[in-house]
Amino acid sequence: MDETALQLQLKTLPSSPGIYQYYDANGTIIYVGKAKNLKKRVSSYFTKTHDNGKTRVLVRKIADIKHIVVETETDALLLENNLIKKYQPRYNVLLKDDKTYPWICIKKERFPRVFSTRRVIKDGSEYFGPYTNFKTIHTLLDLIKGVYPLRTCNYDLSESKIEAGKYKVCLEYHLGNCKGPCEDYESVEEYDRNIIAIREILKGNFKDSLIQFKDQMKQFAANLQFEEAQKVKEKIDVLENYQAKSTIINPKISNVDVFSIMSDEGFGYVNFLQISYGSIIRAHTLEIKKKLDETDKQLLELAITEIRQRFHSNSKEIYVPFKVNLGKDLRITIPQLGDKKRILDLSLRNAKYYRMERFKQIKITDPDRHVNRIMAQMKTDLRLHEEPRHIECFDNSNIQGTHPVAACVVFKDGKPSKKDYRHFNIKTVVGPDDFASMEEVVFRRYKRLVEEAQPLPQLIIIDGGKGQLSSALNALDDLGLRGKIAIIGIAKRLEELFYPDDPIPLYLDKKSETLKIIQQLRNEAHRFGIEHHRNRRSKTALNTDLETIPGIGEKTIVELLSHFKSVKRISNASLKDLEAVVGFSRANKIFNHYHTP
Record's Gene3D superfamilies (predicted)? Predict the structure, then answer.
C-alpha cells in the first residue's frame, strides 16, 4: 500500500474502541495495539515526531493497516493480548510464557480425591490455582491431609461396588489417614462435609474450619473424651499456625487482585498478589521486554489482562498504583493509606526484589549485558551523545588551606579502574582557590593525555557547582577540547547536576543507578584526594622539624625515625642514645638543636 492509500485509510478509520494491526511490505504483522479511539490512536503514529528511534523505524516499515472494532475497552485488551501471543509481532512487548503451572484438583467423583496436577481436564472437577510453585501446593496438601482424612486410592467407589464388598481397606486406613469409605466405614455426607471445608481452605478461608473444630473439641472435653479432644486441638494448632503465616493484612480485604510495576529502559516487572479472606493465596511477577517506548500504564494494562487470564482470576476489584483503563466491569482502587496501601507497597517491594534478583543473575551469567544496560541507561539519563564507557571525576582537597591537592579517579564500564587514578599537587595556585586549582589539574590531565595520544574519556564529572564547572571548561577551551568531551558538575547539597551553558540543573531519581554511579565516582575521588592530602600533611608534620637542623639529611632522618619511632622521642633522647644511632657529630647537632635555649 502506498503513502496515499495509507493516508486515505487513516481518514476513514472509525472513532470506536478496537484493535489495530500494522503489516510490513511482506504482509507480516509487526505490531498490534489497542485503542479507545482507533482514529486518534493510529493517526498519532503518523502525525507526531517520535523521540524513540524504534518507533520511528516501526512507522517507516508500516505498509498496511488492519483493524477490528470491539464493543468495550475490556474486549480490546483481551483481543490485543491474544493476538500478541499468537503472532509475536516484532515490535510488541514479549508476553510469551510456555510454563504449565500446577493446580490442586478436587475430582468430580463419589468420595472426591484431592491432589496436585499440571493438566486441567474439563470433566466437571474443581481446579484451584494455578500456583506459581509446588512448594505452596505441598504445604497446602500436607495441611489438608493433616486435618482431614481423605482417600488416596483411585478406585471407583460407586454405591453398588461398595455394597458388593469389592474393596478392602488399605494401609492408609490402619495408619489413620483414611476412614475407609471403600468398605462403607465413612458416609458420603460426612466425607462431603470435609470436602466443603477443604474447598474453603483452598480459597483462603480458615474461619469455618476453626469454628467447627473448636466446637468438636469442647464437645469431646465435655464428654471426658480427652484423647479425642487433644487430636482435634492439634488440628486447630495446624490451621492457626498456617493461617498466621499466610495472613499479613486486614482479613476484611477479600477477593482482590493487587498489581504494581517497576520498570527500567528495557524491561517492565509487574507483580501480582491475589488476596482472599485477608491472606495472600497467590503471588507472581511477570517480566516484560519492552520493544518501543511503552509507558508503565500501557505495560500494566497489558500485564493485568494477561495475568488474570493465565490465573483465571474472577476478582471484581483490583488495587493499582495509578489509574488504568480496564473496562467498566472492574472496580479500580488506587490506595492512599492504611492496609490497602500497605499491601500495594508489599507488591511493589516484591517487583523491586525480583528486578534486583534478575540483575544479579544477569551480572553473573551475562556481565556484558549488565554493563551494556547500565551504559545505555546513563547515556539516556545524562542526555549524552555516546555511552560513557570511560568516565573521569575530579575533586580538590585543601583542608585548612594547606597543601592543596587534587584527585582524578577513573571508571571504565561503570567500575573503578584504580591503575588509572592520578594525584595532583597544585603548583601554580597560591592559597586555597578551588576554581583556579580545578582549572590547573584539568588542563594538566588532558594536556598530557593529548600529548601522549591516550584515549580521552566520554564524560568528565567535576565535584562542585557552576564555579568549578566553569573553571574546568576554561581548561578544555585552552586545549581545544570543548565539545569533544561531555562534562558535568555535581553539587553536594542537593545532588544537582550542572551542564555547560544551562542555568537549570538536572535532578535524577535518588534511587537511579546513574546517580549511584556518579555518587560512587564523587565519593571515590573525595576519598582518594583526602588520602593524598593526609599523607602530605603527615609527612610534613613528621619531617619539618628535623629537616631544619643544618647537616641532617633525609637518610639520617629515616634512621632516627626507624629507631625512635617519633620526633618527640628524638627531641627527648640523650646525647649518648643519639650517638649510638647516628654518630657523635650528627648526634651533637640534633641534641644542641633541642636543648640549646
Answer: 5' to 3' exonuclease, C-terminal subdomain, GIY-YIG endonuclease, UvrC, RNAse H endonuclease domain
Asked if 303 contacts 261 with a C-beta cutoff of 8 angstroms, the reply is: yes
Residue whose cell numbers read 516484591: 350
Q: Compute the CA torsion angle 472, 474, 477, 478 (nearest 10 deg).
A: -110
Give the SS3 label for residue 491. Answer: strand
**C-alpha–C-alpha distance, residues 188 and 447, integer Å:** 93
> b/e map of 456-474 (b: 16 or more CB within 10 Å)?
ebbbbbbbbbbebbbbbbb
Radius of gyration of the chain (CA): 37
Could you give the CA distance from residue 508 to residue 497 in angstroms, rounded to a whole number?
A: 8
- In b/e form, how buried is each residue of 61-93, taking b as 16+ CB within 10 angstroms? bbbebebbebeebbbbbbbbbebbbeeebebbb
- Taken as a whole, the chain contains a residue count of 597
SS3 category, 62: coil
42 exposed, middle or buried (CB, 10 Å; 0-12, 13-18, 19+)? buried
CB 140 within 8 A of CB 206: no
Residue 130: cis peptide before it, omega within 30 degrees of 0? yes
Distance of CA 69 to the CA centre of its chain: 38
The DSSP H or E segment spanning 393 is strand 390-397
Degrees, nearest 5: CA angle 369-374-375: 95
Supply 548's cell numbers. Answer: 631544619
| Residue 286 near residue 307 (C-beta atoms within 8 A) | yes
Please state the pTM of the whole predicted model.
0.48
Decide: helix, strand or coil at residue 10: helix
User: What Cα–Cα distance (Å) separates residue 436 from each residue in 408, 430, 481?
Assistant: 16, 9, 18
* pLDDT over 70 percentage in the chain: 85
| Helix spans in 169-206 (H) | 171-174, 188-202
pLDDT tens-digit map of 129-162:
666 656 667 767 777 777 788 888 888 888 888 8
Take residue 51 and report the three cell numbers written for it: 523521540
Distance CA 482, CA 492 (A): 24
Per-residue pLDDT reduced to its tens digit, 153-196: 888 888 888 888 888 888 888 888 888 888 888 888 888 888 88
Helices (H) and strands (E) in the chain, counts: 20, 19
User: Which of 106-110, 224-228, 473-477, 565-569 is the least confident region?
Assistant: 565-569
3-state SS of 467-502 is HHHHHHHHHHHHHCCECCEEEEEEECCCCEEEECCE
Write out pLDDT tens, residues 487-499: 888 887 677 888 8
C-alpha cell at position 474? 576554561
